[in-house]
Write a structure and sequence with these properties.
It is a single chain. This protein is α/β, with parallel strands linked by helices. It has one domain (2-259): Class I glutamine amidotransferase (GATase) domain (Rossmann fold). The protein has helices at 16-27, 38-41, 68-86, 98-106, 129-133, 159-165, 205-214, 216-223, 225-234, 239-259, and strands spanning 2-6, 32-36, 52-55, 92-96, 110-127, 143-157, 168-173, 185-189, 194-197. A 9-stranded mixed beta sheet has the order 2-1-3-4-9-8-7-5-6, sandwiched between helices. The longest helix is centred in the C-terminal third of the chain and has 21 residues, at 239-259.
């Protein structure tokens, strides 16, 4: 398959793109892969040239206005939607974290807002009834663990817009009855060809653990010592993160490999 990666990290130092590439090449060394650094170069893939587009996470407020690259990203996604509506040769998209937030914001599918506190580290998610039946998410247990790194959130789905698109909400933040806040939307199949998640499925447990240990002072500054210590204890067992890492993107690639045969 021909796979384009849209890199939304800009100048931010991040290992996410390398992790995505590793998953793709582990799936099949024969895949053709090209990465487009659109925030710095404003160079975009030609839709006709690619089977799959994976749009990465990245820093920033998804609702920030007057950014040329953000408007170009919206236009690019709109072109894919139009292409798929009228062309039998469908193009698939997988949206990761910041890209998921951008898609929800630009197409008015849900509310995007800044969190009261950052969500950093391993957290639990719950599958919805749609998620349990999904070709990709259905390979995970009902409660599964994610690598979360975000200051912003997507909540309050817009049922009318989601229904018009044919979307299905696949995963939510784990229910916490003692916390009176709306659960964030963590996974959506927006159309038959477009999936998105508000976390980092490319992040394996060892990578997340190494990041928290090697950048200790940065994370303590963001989270505070007490929360940081709690995350380090949780990271003594990385099997949950590894299961998600080994499932979502590999299963997605498997699913589309079968479609393109």
């Amino acid at each position: 398959m021909k796979i384009a990666i849209i890199d939304l990290y800009g100048e931010d130092d991040n290992s996410g793109i390398h992790a995505i590439e590793n998953i793709i090449y582990a799936h099949s060394p024969s895949h053709l892969v090209k990465t487009y650094q659109v925030r710095m170069e404003d160079h975009w893939p030609e839709i006709a040239d690619w089977d799959i587009i994976i749009s990465s996470g990245g820093p920033g407020d998804p609702a920030e206005k007057n950014l040329d690259w953000s408007e170009h990203w919206r236009q690019f996604m709109q072109e894919i939607l139009l292409h798929n509506a009228s062309n039998p040769n469908k193009k698939s998209v997988f949206l990761i974290c910041f890209s998921f937030q951008l898609f929800c914001h630009h197409f008015d599918l849900a509310e995007t807002s800044k969190r009261d506190a950052p969500s950093y580290g391993p957290y639990a998610c719950s599958l919805t009834p749609f998620g349990k039946k999904d070709a990709i998410f259905g390979q995970l247990p009902e409660i599964f663990e994610i690598a979360d790194f975000r200051f912003f959130q997507v909540t309050q789905p817009n049922p009318k817009k989601l229904d018009a698109m044919g979307a299905q909400i696949l995963a939510l933040e784990k229910e916490r009855p003692h916390i009176k806040k709306e659960r964030a939307l963590m996974g959506i199949r927006f159309t038959r060809e477009i999936w998105g998640v508000q976390f980092h499925p490319e992040a394996d447990g060892d990578r997340v653990k190494h990041s928290f240990l090697s950048e200790k002072e940065k994370f303590i500054k963001i989270l505070g010592q007490k929360h940081y210590d709690k995350i380090i204890r949780k990271l003594q067992d990385t099997s949950g993160l590894n299961l998600t890492h080994n499932t979502i993107l590999p299963e997605y690639l498997d699913y589309w490999a079968k479609q393109y045969k």
